[in-house]
Design goal:
There is one protein chain. The chain has 112 residues and is mostly helical. It has one domain: Orthogonal Bundle (Hypothetical protein YhaI fold), CATH 1.10.3750. The protein is built from seven helices and no strands. The longest helix has 24 residues. It is elongated and about 55 Å long. The model has no long low-confidence stretch (mean pLDDT 91).
Length: 112
Amino acid sequence: MGTDRNETINFHLHLLLKIKEIDQYPFTKLIIEKELTQEEYRNLMQWTDCIHQEFLAQTEEGFLDVTPLLIKFVGMLHYKLEPKQTIEALKKEGYYPSLMEAFLKLPVLRNT
C-alpha cells in the first residue's frame, strides 16, 4: 500500500514540474528534481546563510575576492547539485542575490 502511495506522489510531482510557472522557481524545481530531503535542503540553506554572513562581513571590511567563499560553498554543496546551476537558481529565485552575483562574476564560473 505504501509503494502505491509513493508512486502516486511521485507521479503528481512529475506533473507539477511540467507546469509553466515552476520555471519562475528554479531553485525549488532543482531541489525537487534532484530529490533532496528536507534535512539536505535545510543544511544547504543554513550553510549558504553562514557563507552569506561571511560575505557581508568581508564586504564591509573591504575584501573583494570571494573565491574562498565559493570554494567553501562548492565544498559543502550536496553531491546531487551542480555548483553553477545551483548558484544561478538561487539568484533567480531571490536567495542571497549579492553573494550569488559575486560568485557568478568569478572567471571560473563565467567560463563554464
